[in-house]
């Protein structure tokens, strides 16, 4: 057990340190890595939304996917697969992004915000954990998205090729790509450092299988704290890194935190929605990126849902800002929770009906 901790804690710690270094080198404060925000920025750069302060082809994302792709190919773990309820995965990815943008961050950024003193992230953590508990109950009642099937190699290569295309567009910078001139989208570490950090994070997370949702889920469901120790590593090492590299940005409290708001109810509910969706999908946004690099087209569909959700959030005024949560964002979170729970119970009832029908036929 201690040997496992000695492996997973430093692995998570390296992710935390890399996050703090990216902030030091130019990424927004408390956003060294935010997978939801990064996909949001990429969606904006591609013109899927026109919020001009959050548009940039973040090279960290291609790094995550390509890092996982390279190491999975080397270790014989690249296995193209998919076909497990793609439409439901798209919808869950869509609403996961809505919840994240109401909270203003993915689960990984939630940990990084907490490591830099933002206590609003605690409310998000409580909501995320509550959402995971709700999803666990749904799993126990029989919810499943079904089994994946083996796919052709080409399908497995689609997300790595997409990542290469994003990098090419970033380097060439054609006129039809949008780049923020101010705001969070304009704050960035140097391209190749960001890419290198993304590659390293992708390799680490592919080898460790670390996932924010999985860590809390396993601790609650089967009393396995292995991945939770990895999350502790991210928190502790990120805290240390912040105090060493950027002590001027560390600020303990609720008020005046960067790219955050202190509307606690909606921080809680936004991350509740994220927690439910992440567990039902089988992984948080960073885990979906790693799975996509391994050839999982179900994860690729989820990423398309995330990007569509980001575009929808900014085109229709659902995303929060440091000024607070919009009315549209509040309605969207409530609709998201109702929709996701309705889908879950429909799937459970459908599966139970199928099983009962099978018993009657056999009788």
Automatic annotation (TrEMBL):
TM region positions: 87-112, 118-136, 157-179, 185-205, 226-245, 265-286, 298-319, 331-348
InterPro entries in the record: Seleno_YedE (IPR026366), Sulf_transp_TsuA/YedE (IPR007272)
Keywords for this protein: Membrane, Transmembrane, Transmembrane helix
Pfam families per record: Sulf_transp (PF04143)
Protein name stated in the entry: Uncharacterized protein
Gene source species: Alkalithermobacter paradoxus
């Amino acid at each position: 057990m201690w040997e496992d901790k000695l492996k997973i804690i430093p692995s998570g710690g390296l992710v935390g340190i890399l996050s703090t270094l990216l902030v030091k080198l130019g990424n927004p404060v408390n956003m060294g890595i935010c997978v939801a925000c990064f996909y949001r920025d990429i969606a904006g750069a591609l013109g899927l939304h026109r919020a001009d302060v959050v548009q940039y082809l973040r090279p960290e994302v291609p790094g995550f996917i390509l890092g996982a792709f390279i190491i999975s190919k080397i270790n014989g773990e690249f296995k193209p697969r998919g076909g497990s309820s793609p439409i439901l995965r798209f919808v869950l990815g869509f609403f996961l992004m809505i919840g994240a943008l109401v909270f203003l961050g993915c689960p990984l950024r939630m940990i990084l915000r907490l490591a830099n003193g933002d206590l609003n992230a605690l409310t998000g953590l409580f909501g995320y954990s509550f959402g995971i508990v709700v999803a666990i109950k749904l799993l126990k009642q029989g919810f499943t998205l079904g089994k994946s099937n083996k796919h052709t190699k080409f399908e497995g290569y689609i997300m790595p090729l997409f990542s290469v295309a994003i990098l090419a567009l970033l380097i060439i910078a054609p006129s039809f790509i949008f780049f923020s001139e101010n705001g969070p989208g304009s704050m960035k570490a140097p391209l190749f450092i960001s890419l290198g950090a993304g590659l390293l994070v992708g390799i680490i997370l592919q080898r460790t299988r670390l996932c924010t949702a999985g860590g809390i889920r396993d601790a609650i469901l089967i009393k396995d704290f292995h991945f939770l120790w990895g999350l502790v590593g991210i928190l502790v090492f990120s805290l240390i890194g912040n105090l060493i590299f950027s002590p001027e940005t560390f600020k303990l409290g609720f008020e005046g935190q960067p790219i955050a708001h202190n509307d606690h109810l909606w921080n809680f509910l936004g991350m509740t929605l994220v927690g439910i969706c992440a567990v039902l999908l089988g992984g948080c946004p960073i885990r979906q990126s790693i799975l996509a690099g391994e050839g999982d087209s179900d994860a690729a569909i989820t990423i398309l849902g995330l990007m569509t959700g980001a575009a929808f959030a900014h085109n229709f005024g659902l995303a929060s800002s440091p000024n607070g949560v919009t009315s549209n964002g509040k309605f969207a979170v409530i609709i998201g929770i109702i929709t996701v729970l309705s889908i879950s119970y429909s799937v459970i009832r459908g599966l139970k009906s199928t099983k009962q029908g099978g018993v009657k036929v056999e009788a």
